[in-house]
DNA sequence: ATAGCTCTCTATAGTAGCTATAGAGTCAAG
DNA sequence: CTTGACTCTATAGCTACTATAGAGAGCTAT
């Protein structure tokens, strides 16, 4: 049961180019090739790509996924590392939510400053944006 | 009162390279030059850069900021366009928050699946990630 | 004047995770 | 035998910067 890259992509809900990209990045192993130099994939490839895509749908970075795949390929150890990775990831997501909610509040405050159609010079929003004293506090890398 | 790029950057809380980048992108006008070919800035530049940085701190894209600057430089019309832009931006932020909260729930569910230190094959998290039936629903471009 | 130091200049490449394009080859059906 | 769908490689583009190299400007201390 050997399928080509288009089928593999379809079954995993991603683009053909993305599969090749994962191969280049070392997340997917180099597959066998047909006589005409087409990539040929089997069940293990399908499962692995679905694993990757599922991790991506959980917004993990390729680097995190690489780590998970490494742990998975190396099943002698215990799985404490996986718990740590997931816990860290959850915390990052929660921090991002908090930052976005703060941001939303700033934007809503700004929106209140102009009700509608005034001449440009009187627009409270523009003036609010010009006001250099009301910058949003941000850490070094915002991670919104 | 003419300052050089380092001072300008310091006053606006960004890097020197970022100022040059904004110039290349057409957000900042090309400034006058000194005899030694150094960029020289005045008050208008300072105000404009602070405006840009404030918008960035509100997570607006450079493209959105370009639009705002265009509206600002063209003060004959009324300011309805600014309201629309801001409203759209707030909605994008709210969608992102919603998506992240969903994502967080998925991650927390996954975390429940493995309490601690089992051998790798039994790790509920890895098995949960392999399960292709539990992908997170995502629109075309996730915008997390 | 010369050394040392900080600031500035241009140009280029790298970051993440793809997406898009060009130009060529493969393969099955009509 | 040609059409069409699929695949191949290689390269450039996207966002908003960051990092690097190598050279010049301008000030202070000797």
Structure report:
The structure is a homodimer of 144-residue chains. By secondary structure, chain A is mainly alpha-helical. Chain A has 2 domains: 5-72, Multidrug-efflux Transporter Regulator, Chain: A, Domain 2, CATH 1.10.1660; 80-134. Chain A is built from 6 helices and 2 strands. Chain A has helices spanning 5-12, 16-24, 43-57, 62-72, 80-112, 124-130; strands at residues 32-33, 39-40. Chain A has a two-stranded antiparallel sheet with strand order 1-2. In chain A, strand 1 and strand 2 (39-40) form a beta hairpin. The longest helix of chain A is centred in the middle third of the chain and has 33 residues, at 80-112. The first copy, chain A, is elongated and about 70 Å long. The model of chain A is unreliable at 137-144 (pLDDT under 50). The interface between A and B is large, with 60 and 60 residues. Chain A binds a DNA duplex (30 and 30 nucleotides) through helix 2. Chains A, B: Keywords: DNA-binding.
Span between termini of chain A: 43 Å
Question: What is the overall shape of chain A?
Answer: elongated
- What oligomeric state do the depicted chains represent? homodimer
Named at the architecture level, the CATH assignment of the largest domain in chain A is Orthogonal Bundle
CATH class of the largest domain in chain A: Mainly Alpha
The CATH topology of the largest domain in chain A is given as Multidrug-efflux Transporter Regulator, Chain: A, Domain 2
Reading side by side through the largest sheet of chain A, how are the strands ordered?
1-2
Total domains of chain A: 2
Strand percentage of chain A lies at: under 5%
Order of helices and strands of chain A: HHEEHHHH
Q: Sheet with the most strands of chain A?
A: 2 strands, antiparallel
Radius of gyration of chain A: 23 Å
Number of helices of chain A: 6
Largest interface: A-B, 60 and 60 residues
The percent of residues in helical segments of chain A reads: 55-70%
Number of beta-strand segments of chain A = 2
Low-confidence stretches of chain A: 137-144
């Amino acid at each position: 049961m050997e399928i080509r890259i288009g089928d593999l992509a379809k079954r995993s809900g991603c683009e053909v180019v993305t599969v090749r990209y994962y191969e280049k990045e070392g997340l997917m192993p180099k597959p066998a090739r047909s006589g005409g130099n087409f990539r040929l994939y089997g069940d293990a490839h399908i499962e692995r790509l679905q694993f990757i895509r599922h991790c991506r749908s959980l917004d993990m970075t390729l680097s995190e996924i690489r780590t998970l795949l490494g742990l998975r390929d190396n099943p002698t150890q215990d799985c404490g590392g996986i718990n740590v990775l997931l816990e860290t990831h959850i915390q990052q997501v929660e921090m991002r939510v908090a930052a976005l909610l703060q941001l939303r509040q700033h934007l809503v405050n700004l929106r209140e400053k102009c009700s509608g159609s005034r001449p440009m010079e009187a627009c409270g929003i523009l003036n609010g944006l010009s006001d250099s004293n009301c910058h949003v506090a941000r850490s070094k890398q915002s991670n919104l």
